[in-house]
Amino acid sequence: MDEQSRMLQTLAGVNLAGHSVQGGMALPPPHGHEGADGDGRKQDIGDILHQIMTITDQSLDEAQAKKHALNCHRMKPALFSVLCEIKEKTGLSIRGAQEEDPPDPQLMRLDNMLLAEGVSGPEKGGGSAAAAAAAAASGGSSDNSIEHSDYRAKLTQIRQIYHTELEKYEQACNEFTTHVMNLLREQSRTRPISPKEIERMVGIIHRKFSSIQMQLKQSTCEAVMILRSRFLDAMRKRRNFSKQATEILNEYFYSHLSNPYPSEEAKEELAKKCSITVSQVSNWFGNKRIRYKKNIGKFQEEANLYAAKTAVTAAHAVAAAVQNNQTNSPTTPNSGSSGSFNLPNSGDMFMNMQSLNGDSYQGSQVGANVQSQVDSLRHVINQTGGYSDGLGGNSLYSPHNLNANGGWQDATTPSSVTSPTEGPGSVHSDTSN
DNA sequence: GATGATGATTCGCG
DNA sequence: CGCGAATCATCATC
């Protein structure tokens, strides 16, 4: 017992020495008169100063020697474990309760967002979500791709910065953790520091660093959001369709003037051809119909232009079809009295014309549509012979496609000249079957 | 900057 | 829900 009490005294002294070495500052020895008057405090400070002043190499050596002696003492391990236990049961047990915290929901949200935006996670294809969405909304024409690449470049930049910073933080965290662990291990020889405590300390460090990481993730998210909103704003701006797209839409419109209501399938086909969305096709046709109806005279020229175009393609088609028929079949398919019934796979005239462009037609389709194309050609030829500019004249694409109340002619009243593919009873079933 | 063209949006109707 | 009609917002041209 006597030996033990002596040892505790020594231990306290060595501990003090240890602190003074590491901290560079000696702690005052515990005095009993804390709440005393100023004289007592002055006395304390005087003692400390005296201690500091009297630290010599010799006293340090003495302390080291004491430390060594203590470390080698046979009772040291037992006492050390007792101290550890006491320490464990007091202060640290309070903190222990907060240790196994669940994953932070905010951090999870940030992680998910970064993953969705393609900042974290796999490199390829990431971050194009907004670009793709905007592309779908705005048609994804060629000029958009410039902005897409710009968006992607900026996103890549953010991604790079994020990863660099993250790496830096991780490195710093590891370095600091290693440093602290080494320090604690070193101190554990003189202080009651259990491995569990070191583990806790590491946990605390990691939490600190993860909060820094969260800030990084937060600002990265913000940057991505800003970039994205700017990109979407730029995309939202109205821009005219490409010339080619307008051409395609106009050709369809004027070749179906008697019933310019493309079916869902036709809309999809047109959307694909024009690199725009189906709703844009719908918008275009809606606008076109209303504007055409409002001012037919203005659109006459345009109508004739496309009629001529159709004529040329129809001529090619008919020539090919006739040739095809001569070689394949003595009878003309679809040579019914009206010549305008929709065929199951006829699609619409325009679509077939498109496929015929460049002399790459499909014989069977041409054969099926030959009658309509012949009709179309005949009308166009008649038209080009003598077109009068007058409103309501005898022109090919004259207002008589419209009925009395301003709407497009009823499906039950067949068109006199236009769109031979449309037959009686056909309700804008261009490609429907 | 004025003006017309054009794509998109909104609202009411059937 | 698709359409017509009115309207808005932006583009393109002069």
TrEMBL record:
<dbReference type="InterPro" id="IPR017970">
    <property type="entry name" value="Homeobox_CS"/>
</dbReference>
<dbReference type="Pfam" id="PF03792">
    <property type="entry name" value="PBC"/>
</dbReference>
<feature type="compositionally biased region" description="Polar residues">
    <location>
        <begin position="352"/>
        <end position="369"/>
    </location>
</feature>
<feature type="region of interest" description="Disordered">
    <location>
        <begin position="402"/>
        <end position="433"/>
    </location>
</feature>
<dbReference type="InterPro" id="IPR050224">
    <property type="entry name" value="TALE_homeobox"/>
</dbReference>
<keyword id="KW-0238">DNA-binding</keyword>
<feature type="region of interest" description="Disordered">
    <location>
        <begin position="325"/>
        <end position="369"/>
    </location>
</feature>
<dbReference type="Pfam" id="PF05920">
    <property type="entry name" value="Homeobox_KN"/>
</dbReference>
<keyword id="KW-0371">Homeobox</keyword>
<dbReference type="GO" id="GO:0003677">
    <property type="term" value="F:DNA binding"/>
</dbReference>
<dbReference type="InterPro" id="IPR001356">
    <property type="entry name" value="HD"/>
</dbReference>
<feature type="compositionally biased region" description="Low complexity">
    <location>
        <begin position="325"/>
        <end position="340"/>
    </location>
</feature>
<dbReference type="InterPro" id="IPR009057">
    <property type="entry name" value="Homeodomain-like_sf"/>
</dbReference>
<dbReference type="GO" id="GO:0000981">
    <property type="term" value="F:DNA-binding transcription factor activity, RNA polymerase II-specific"/>
</dbReference>
<feature type="domain" description="Homeobox">
    <location>
        <begin position="232"/>
        <end position="295"/>
    </location>
</feature>
<dbReference type="InterPro" id="IPR008422">
    <property type="entry name" value="KN_HD"/>
</dbReference>
<comment type="similarity">
    <text>Belongs to the TALE/PBX homeobox family.</text>
</comment>
<dbReference type="GO" id="GO:0005634">
    <property type="term" value="C:nucleus"/>
</dbReference>
<feature type="compositionally biased region" description="Polar residues">
    <location>
        <begin position="402"/>
        <end position="421"/>
    </location>
</feature>
<feature type="domain" description="PBC">
    <location>
        <begin position="40"/>
        <end position="233"/>
    </location>
</feature>
<feature type="DNA-binding region" description="Homeobox">
    <location>
        <begin position="234"/>
        <end position="296"/>
    </location>
</feature>
<protein>
    <recommendedName>
        <fullName>Pre-B-cell leukemia transcription factor 3</fullName>
    </recommendedName>
</protein>
<dbReference type="InterPro" id="IPR005542">
    <property type="entry name" value="PBX_PBC_dom"/>
</dbReference>
<keyword id="KW-0805">Transcription regulation</keyword>
<keyword id="KW-0539">Nucleus</keyword>
<keyword id="KW-0804">Transcription</keyword>
